[in-house]
Design a protein that fits this description.
478 residues, alpha+beta, eleven-stranded mixed sheet, two-stranded antiparallel ribbon, 17 helices, 13% strand
Length: 478
């Protein structure tokens, strides 16, 4: 028995020493990991500037990567957007569609150096009915006509907001925001409805393009200069009138508006000199034209009558904007405060929904023979070069070339100002999966001329739609 005890006594210190060694090893391992993690969070530059140690470490990592070495060889002499493109993706996303709007319009339009995409997209949709009814080979509505009335009304809208907020300090954030981009060329669906319902439409020959409608920057710069000056004039007058006890608030408002109307004379003068005097919405005109078979014909009526006559199947005032904004709750109605063009007109409203519902509404419209106005962030992972015209997430191979990950979600891109709705176009076709009925790609009519994309058209993949399409205008609930 003593031997057993002795043996057991001899083994116990051995096990204890082993546990100590294991414990020491574990502590060492944890200390090593801790040191590694700590090293990650220990900056080489204590003051936040870029140190040479930073550069040396970055260069050591980059120069050891064969991919980066190849990228350095190639990309120092070429544009990454045109060089890092996928031939396989271009082949996989052809300009072929199972469903297209049966009637093809023409010509391909060109907004040139202006931000009138939303007006071109709208008139490109409306002209389908005009061309079908009148049997036309080519036709355009006057985008410049809507542009004139939009710009004039936006000028008035800004001055009305200036009166409304005259009590705020001139450096107030709201006042400053309103003055920053007061009469941009862009707009929303409800804003174009305001123009159509108030002023109607005319064929392009009745109010053709001018230099400044096609290249609007100089005109915009001059108008902004005058409007900011006018806003200060109205602010000063408001302060003077409200300091007096002789006038009621209604009288003050009336006098401010009377002054605003005087100031708007200068805006109107500038615009008619640069864009031309537009037809009045209630004044009859005669439009003479040839049908596709070469026969002479004419149409007589007012701009408002022309608009009503050719929007019987697709009525803009009955359409609404669906949007996909994952930052906000779905199935809710949203607006943007102080966004508009016609003072007292239709409010800008959106119904927020998921991309699945947004696509389903588009597909239903295309299958019903109706093209769709939509808004997107057009320059993201796209190529509008002649004979290409593609929008697909895999087209540009940035991640492979630079050994990086681009992982922002749609919501995060919106939150960080990486992405926004920058362009409006028309969807006129869709290719769907025969088994599931799900969309695979979409046919897109652009307004950048026939030399852009595939004879003026783009092909948009379903995945690109998910990430960069933000709105569509539909004439029936989804």
């Amino acid at each position: 028995m003593g031997g057993i005890v002795s043996k057991a006594a001899n083994q116990q210190p051995t096990k204890s020493l082993e546990r100590e060694r294991q414990s020491t090893d574990e502590k060492a391992r944890r200390a090593s990991e801790s040191a590694q993690h700590t090293d990650v969070f220990l900056p080489k530059s204590s003051n936040g500037s870029i140190s040479l140690s930073n550069v040396e470490a970055w260069e050591s990592t980059a120069s050891a990567d064969p991919k980066i070495q190849l990228a350095r060889t190639v990309l120092a002499h070429s544009n990454i957007k045109t060089t890092l493109t996928s031939r396989e993706t271009r082949i996989a996303v052809p300009h072929v569609f199972s469903h297209e709007v049966e009637f093809r319009t023409g010509p391909v339009t060109n907004q040139k150096s202006s931000g009138r995409c939303w007006l071109f997209a709208t008139t490109n949709v409306i002209r389908y009915e005009v061309m079908k009814k009148l049997k036309l080979k080519d036709f355009q509505c006057s985008q410049s006509y809507l542009f004139f009335w939009d710009k004039l009304n936006k000028s008035n809208y800004y001055l009305e907001l200036s009166i409304e907020n005259a009590h705020l300090p001139v450096d107030d954030r709201l006042v400053n925001f309103l003055a920053a981009d007061l009469i941009s060329d862009g707009g929303q669906w409800d804003m174009v409805v305001n123009l159509l319902e108030t002023y109607g439409l005319v064929p392009l020959p009745l109010y053709p393009e001018s230099f400044h409608s096609s290249a609007s920057n100089s005109l915009n710069k001059l108008l902004k200069l005058k409007l900011r000056e006018h806003a200060l004039t109205l602010r000063n007058l408001s302060a003077t009138l409200r300091a007096s006890s002789s006038f009621t608030s209604e009288q003050v408002s009336a006098m401010l508006r009377a002054k605003k109307e005087q100031l708007m004379q200068e805006v109107y003068t500038i615009m008619t000199a640069t864009l031309g005097v537009p037809p009045k919405p209630d004044t009859p005109f005669t439009w003479e034209y040839y049908s596709e078979d070469g026969k002479y014909s004419k149409w007589e009526g007012t701009p408002l009558e022309f608009y009503k006559a050719f929007t019987t199947r697709y009525t803009p005032s009955e359409c609404f904007s669906l949007i996909n904004d994952p930052r906000n709750e779905y199935n809710k109605l949203y607006t943007v405060d102080k966004l508009g063009n016609v003072w007292g007109g239709r409010q800008v409203l959106y119904v927020n929904t998921g991309t699945t519902e947004l696509k389903a509404a588009v597909v239903r419209s295309i299958k019903a023979g109706q093209p769709v106005f939509f808004g997107c962030d057009v320059n993201q992972f796209s190529d509008s070069s002649q004979d290409i015209g593609i929008m697909d997430l895999d087209y540009h191979q940035y991640q492979q070339a630079f050994n990086i990950q681009l992982s922002l979600t749609k919501a995060q891109r919106l939150q960080t100002n990486e992405s926004s709705m920058t362009h409006a176009m028309v969807i006129s076709g869709v290719h769907v999966d025969e088994k599931t009925g799900s969309p695979i790609r979409f046919k897109v009519e652009n307004s950048w001329g026939e030399d852009s994309g595939h004879k003026g058209y783009m092909v948009m993949s379903d995945k690109w739609f998910d990430e960069y399409v933000f709105s569509s205008c539909n004439d029936s609930p989804g």
